[in-house]
Design brief:
The chain is α/β, with parallel strands linked by helices. The chain is built from 14 helices and 9 strands. The strands form 2 sheets. A 7-stranded mixed beta sheet has the order 5-4-3-6-7-9-8, with helices on both faces. A two-stranded antiparallel ribbon has the order 1-2. Strand 4, helix 11 and strand 5 form a beta-alpha-beta unit.
């Protein structure tokens, strides 16, 4: 296809080229963040202060030539500071919160880790685009699960106990007194373990169809000293057998299901008479144009690589995607027979819904 030069807006073309340079630089940057995290480069910089490339290499048992190139890439991207006068590199306090402090609510290494892992499915995704077939979690590299858990855990740590649960009416009082809680699509168990640690009189069950994730979640519950009140089981969202739950949670999992209506119908049957649901979903507006922003871009991209193929891999393949929006989620909830649906909380990353029969 040939475009007439007269139809080209040179200023707009220059802007697009500039954006593309930023974007492919970011694509190359994601695996380098994962490398820096796995080698302890960020934490070493945060703890030691300004270091030369050789000093950082010596402290991390790595090779200086690789470290120097990595540091320059980080500095060019604004993720590491460089002092030309001393030839040393360091992290600002803000960079340290983002890259070196796993307990920080701003910690985003998991986003880069999961993005780098998700990209590995590219060749299979090309075929899926042509055939319409799905790609389950089983089709992804194991780093994806770890990266997603680390990304989500930052938000859960900052908000789950502090604001989300307190905004669910009487739920927090019941948790303090002793409630039965299910986490459907629990992944590696981050949210389940956080709740168990905060509410020692309650018991928790996490369900996930991905056996390796369940096995890791069990190990983490033991490490967190909550295994006496938490168990994790391999089960799909519409097949677990337990009943009588006071609270059933879906943490960023409902939109990944091929049949979210069936999952919610099953949850309604598994609730105690006065039980409720908490749905945590990615932040999204109801109209496409409301999501054409940096957060929407990241969510649509992740949804294309992970969430939508995952939904299409399960019958009937509804595939809500990560940007379904409140109105669409309400439709799904009402189809499952729930009568109360309200937005209980929100963050720049999540919408939190209180759902009751």
């Amino acid at each position: 296809m040939t475009v007439s030069p007269r139809a080209i807006n040179e200023e707009r073309l220059d802007q697009l080229i500039g954006q593309a340079i930023v974007d492919f630089g970011a694509a190359y940057h994601a695996p380098l963040v994962a490398v820096g995290d796995k080698l302890g480069l960020y934490t070493t910089l945060a703890q030691a202060g300004p270091l030369t490339a050789a000093e950082l290499a010596a402290r991390t048992s790595t090779v200086e030539r690789y470290i120097r190139e990595w540091l320059n890439a980080q500095a060019a991207g604004g993720y590491v500071e460089y002092d030309a006068a001393t030839d040393r590199y360091f992290l600002s306090p803000e960079q340290a919160l983002l890259l070196a402090d796993e307990d920080s609510p701003a910690f985003l290494v998991g986003a880069f880790q999961s993005a780098a892992a998700a990209a590995l499915v590219g060749p299979r995704l090309v075929r899926a685009f042509r055939t319409g077939e799905g790609l389950s979690y089983y089709d992804h590299d194991g780093d994806l699960f770890v990266g997603i858990e680390r990304l989500f855990r930052s938000g859960y740590t900052a908000h789950l106990v502090q604001s989300w649960l307190p905004n669910l009416g009487d739920v927090e009082d019941r948790l303090r007194a002793g409630a039965r809680v299910a986490d459907v699509g629990c992944g590696l168990g981050a949210a389940t373990i956080l709740m168990a640690s905060a509410y020692p009189h309650s018991t928790f069950v996490g369900f996930d169809y991905h056996r390796p994730s369940v096995e890791t979640a069990r190990e983490r519950a033991t490490a967190a000293s909550v295994a006496d009140r938490v168990r994790f089981e391999v089960a799909s969202a519409a097949a677990y057998l337990d009943r009588g739950f006071d609270l059933i949670c879906f943490f960023d999992s409902l939109h990944d299901l091929g049949d979210p209506v069936a999952a919610l119908l099953h949850a309604r049957q598994a609730l105690a008479a006065d039980g409720s649901l908490m749905l945590v979903e990615p932040y999204a507006g109801d109209r496409i144009e409301e999501n054409l922003n940096p957060m929407g871009r990241a969510s649509y991209a992740a949804s294309t690589l992970i969430c939508t193929p995952c939904g299409l891999s399960q019958e009937p393949g509804l595939a809500l995607g990560a940007q379904a929006g409140e109105a669409r989620i309400r439709e799904i909830v009402e189809q499952a027979g729930f009568s109360i649906f309200r937005r209980a909380a929100q963050t720049p990353f999540n919408l939190v819904f209180d759902v009751r029969p």
